[in-house]
Specification:
This protein is mostly beta strands. It has helices at 2-20, 172-180, 333-339, 399-405; strands at 24-36, 45-50, 59-62, 66-73, 81-83, 109-115, 121-127, 139-144, 158-167, 190-193, 214-217, 222-229, 236-240, 245-250, 253-260, 262-265, 270-276, 285-291, 304-310, 377-379, 382-384. Helices cover 10% and strands 32% of the residues. The radius of gyration is 23 Å and the shape is globular. The structure holds 2-acetamido-2-deoxy-beta-D-glucopyranose (9 copies).
Length: 410
């Protein structure tokens, strides 16, 4: 018996090299200021572009790939990119979060090495410090299933990444100063869709000369649409005029499939929908991202509007925008909607990883903490996000260095 096990183990070990050679994908990301005027020439600002583009290029990879990203910081200040939601199997020096990772000094480069072990789905990357994300530096991450793992729906005819987010015409250094003086950022100047301002659906609300996003599709097809709220502070209601959106995945987990006519996407959330182009194309259709949980009549001028254009479209979109949920009197609607999303446990996807999370239920609880997110707090005259009134300030000696070299008192 023992011998048999030995032989089996040896055979498995012999197989290992084949299993261990997960493919490598290499990316270069040069992060620099680009001049852009997403809300028209009067609102020109320093935007953070990637490889000269705003938004940057999508990172399109497959489960288990080793991803090597050489990031060059061409900004005039430190830069830390976080690969949101991506697990880091190699070590925790790669996740792009202050505390475990140091920012890349201006003019330097750093190579992140990640492995998207057992992961699938829709994520995005962004600069994680100094409010730089308010100026750009982001784009989507698509993690495709390996061919041997079934996707719980038919192969879509196209894959479209849509980044929605609030936008301020002040640049991030000016926004930072406002917070440091204890001021609120206030109402944003617009909501961008893929880095572009609103389609001019109403001449008095949207000034002329703004470039908008157009999604070109063919009739009778099904597209996978990945929607990410890359903004700073605004919850957005996302909808496509005349179309159902079948929710299939969120942040790396397949969901039970459910149709929505609109869905709230809170800051940093990612959802993917299947959208079937089953309408008569008598005109183009509006794609809308509008602010939620604010005075919507006051905030109407910041609504993000793009266009869905069928190849047989009868003409431009016109008329009023489709309505969001009519729930002004029900403040819990949005939270309940988010809570109603369910994991499809029979679909193949990432599973709790053997390094820890599957053991959580066997850990005895000895202490409990209540984290109260009553932001913002005024700390030393500055406006800061806080938990229990405490905010985070990076220590002079980075935590991981203190840990690695046994530096006390940090
Ligand atoms: C932001 O704008 C201010 C002027 O309002 C300017 O002094 C500053 O250099 C700008 N910052 C960047 C990063 O462009
Ligand atoms: C992403 O990669 C997959 C698999 O290699 C490919 O089928 C797909 O067309 C790519 N998608 C995009 C948007 O480039
Ligand atoms: C910086 O980029 C160069 C050229 O691409 C590369 O050879 C080097 O390894 C990179 N350095 C770091 C620390 O990533
Ligand atoms: C869940 O995934 C399974 C397996 O792929 C699929 O057959 C089923 O339709 C999905 N269920 C729902 C409710 O989406
Ligand atoms: C444009 O918006 C204004 C202000 O909300 C509204 O009064 C007007 O009716 C709208 N125009 C059209 C054509 O919908
Ligand atoms: C979603 O809506 C489409 C029509 O747009 C319909 O064909 C489909 O059956 C619906 N799916 C679910 C799960 O409700
Ligand atoms: C197309 O659909 C719209 C909305 O359902 C309807 O108002 C319109 O009459 C239809 N047009 C044609 C040519 O069928
Ligand atoms: C929203 O703002 C408008 C314009 O200032 C005001 O008339 C209205 O009362 C406000 N609505 C609410 C619910 O506060
Ligand atoms: C949890 O507590 C039980 C009962 O005291 C004990 O038997 C068990 O070993 C503890 N588990 C762990 C992981 O410490």
């Amino acid at each position: 018996m023992r011998r048999l096990l030995f032989a089996l183990a040896a055979a498995l070990l012999a197989l290992r090299p084949a299993l261990a050679t997960d493919p490598y994908a290499f990316f270069d990301r040069d992060v620099s200021y680009v001049t852009a005027a997403p809300l028209g020439v009067k609102q020109q600002t320093s935007v953070i572009g990637i490889n000269g583009k705003f938004p940057g290029p999508v990172v399109n990879i497959t489960t288990n790939w080793n991803v090597v990203v050489n990031v060059l910081n061409d900004l005039n200040e430190p830069l830390l990119i976080t690969w949101n939601g991506i697990q880091h199997r190699k070590n925790c020096w790669q996740d792009g979060v202050l505390g475990t990772n140091c920012p890349i000094p201006s003019g330097w480069n750093w190579t992140y090495e990640l492995q998207v072990k057992d992961q699938i789905g829709s994520f995005f990357y962004f600069p994680s410090t100094g409010l730089q994300r308010a100026a750009g530096g982001f784009d989507g991450i698509v993690v495709n299933n390996r061919d041997v793992i079934a996707v719980p729906f038919g192969r879509p005819d196209g894959d479209i990444t849509i980044l929605i987010g609030d936008w301020y015409s002040k640049n991030h250094t000016d926004l930072r100063k406002m917070l440091d003086k204890g001021k609120d950022l206030g109402m944003p100047d617009g909501v961008l869709i893929n880095g572009k301002g609103p389609y001019r659906y109403n001449d008095s609300l949207v000034p002329a000369g703004i470039e908008h996003e157009t999604f070109n599709v063919h009739p009778g097809r099904t597209y996978r649409i990945r929607v990410h709220n890359v903004g700073t502070s605004t919850s957005l209601n996302f909808r496509i005029q005349g179309h159902n959106m079948l929710l299939v995945e969120t942040e790396g987990s397949y969901t039970t499939q459910q149709n929505y006519t609109n869905l709230d996407v809170h800051v940093s959330q990612s959802y993917s929908f299947l959208v079937t182009t089953d309408q008569n194309a008598s005109s183009d259709y509006y794609v809308v991202a509008s602010a939620r949980q604010v005075n919507e009549s006051l905030w109407r001028r910041v609504t993000g509007v793009a266009v869905l254009r069928y190849s047989n479209s009868g003409g431009p979109a016109a008329g009023p925008l489709p309505d969001p949920s009519q729930d002004q009197k029900d403040r819990s609607f949005s939270m309940n909607q988010a809570r109603s999303v369910r994991w499809n446990l029979s679909a193949g996807a990432a599973r709790p990883n053997p390094q820890g999370s599957f053991r959580y239920s066997s850990i005895n609880v000895t202490q409990a903490y209540l984290l109260r997110g009553a932001a913002p707090a005024w700390i030393g005259g500055r406006r800061r996000a806080a938990l229990n009134g405490l905010s985070f300030a990076p220590p002079e000696t980075p935590l991981r260095l203190a840990d690695a070299y046994g530096v006390e008192g940090v």
